[in-house]
TrEMBL record:
Keyword Membrane appears in the UniProt entry: yes
Superkingdom assignment: Bacteria
Record field: transmembrane: 66-89
Organism field: Porticoccus litoralis
Keywords, ordered alphabetically: Membrane, Transmembrane, Transmembrane helix
Protein name: DUF2970 domain-containing protein
Length: 94
């Protein structure tokens, strides 16, 4: 009879930065200014490990504030694109 070797312990973290962030249980919603800061982090892809861990934890338990930050980041991105295109049109037509 052939015995199967036991599988080694696998890491199932979605992002390598999670290994360096201490575990915190903070499931309360993001505040107003935290939502705005999270939106700018999403737009410019600037995210500390602690913020990324908290956002993914909130997505699992209470995603309302993270979804609001995502919608706000889309609005900010489209406003930046619209403003840049309007400025380019204005300066190219003069």
């Amino acid at each position: 009879m052939v015995e199967k070797p036991e599988p080694e312990k696998l890491d199932y973290d979605a992002h390598p930065v999670f290994k360096t962030v201490p575990e915190e249980t903070n499931n309360k919603n993001l505040g107003f200014f935290e939502i705005i800061a999270q939106a700018f982090c999403l737009v410019f892809q600037l995210q500390r490990g602690k913020g990324l861990k908290r956002a993914t934890d909130l997505l699992e338990s209470n995603p309302k504030s993270v979804i609001a930050a995502g919608i706000l980041s889309m609005i900010i991105f489209f406003l930046i694109c619209f403003t840049a295109s309007q400025l380019a049109i204005k300066y190219l037509t003069n």
